[in-house]
Amino acid sequence: MPSSHTVTLRPAADTELANVEFTFGSSFPRPRERTIRQGYGFEIELPAVLDLLTAIDDGVLKAGDVKDLLQRVVGAMYEPADCWRYEDDEDKLAWCRRDGTCRTCDRHRSAFASSLAEAAERWRRWTLPEQYPYAAGNSKGLHEVGCPVLRRDMPQEFNPPAADDAEALRSFAHRKDAYDRSPRDLMPLSYHIPFVVMTTEETRAWMERNTGPRGGRYYHRCERCAPAP
Ligand SMILES: [Zn+2]
Ligand SMILES: [Zn+2]
């Protein structure tokens, strides 16, 4: 989302331009492409530019000082404008590896932890078929846990990364944040358990939740194992 910012510029001790309007993210002019930290994606209102040029003409300011000032303003706006989101996915990954972590990783840290906890709980239940005899997949197919259709899609073993594994978090987070294709060179994450494993009680409640007011079913019962909780 483009954002607007208002900054009071003080290019010299006795010169002040109050409430100068900047925007970020509304245009990225190709012919002058550069890094965001060098001002790419930022715009400044024209009257302020003209006043700055007039001050240079009058000898009140030096062009170099104005340039330095604008670069500093860009630096100060990087956070509030959430410029990180606009950075290139491959760049973000490279900077993350260089620095050990990044904003993308911070943003997804708790989702990563929950995904690990959820997978561990699903796996725990999977190993206790007597207590948890039914399972449902993402497209709402209901099975008995012994069903071959389901067993085919379940992993053979469960080897989740440690919750503090930085490379695993990186892989999770940078995949989630990627615009289109996730960056190359991320470690594969294979701890996802594709089925929710449930007790008989929970399965009945699940069926009820997935049944419409007129009795229409939003789930399908597997033909192969014909579950009847
Ligand atoms: Zn990161
Ligand atoms: Zn089945």
What would you say about this model in short?
The chain is of the alpha+beta class and 229 residues long. The protein contains 7 helices and 7 strands, in the order E-E-E-H-H-H-H-E-E-H-H-E-H-E. Strand 1 and strand 2 form a beta hairpin.
Q: Which terms would index this structure?
A:
single chain; 229 residues; alpha+beta; 2 domains; three-stranded antiparallel sheet; 7 helices; 7 strands; elongated; binds zinc ion
Could you walk me through the main structural features you see in this protein, from its secondary elements to its overall organization?
The chain has 229 residues and is α+β, with helices and mostly antiparallel strands. It has two domains: 3-86, no CATH class; 92-221, no CATH class. The protein has seven helices and seven strands. The protein has helices at residues 46-57, 63-77, 89-99, 103-126, 148-153, 166-177, 200-209; strands at 3-12, 15-24, 42-44, 134-136, 141-144, 196-198, 220-221. Strand 1 (3-12) and strand 2 form a beta hairpin. It is elongated. The two termini are 48 Å apart. The mean pLDDT is 94. The structure holds zinc ion (2 copies). Residues 96, 101-102, 104-105, 170, 173-174 line the site of one zinc ion (ZN).
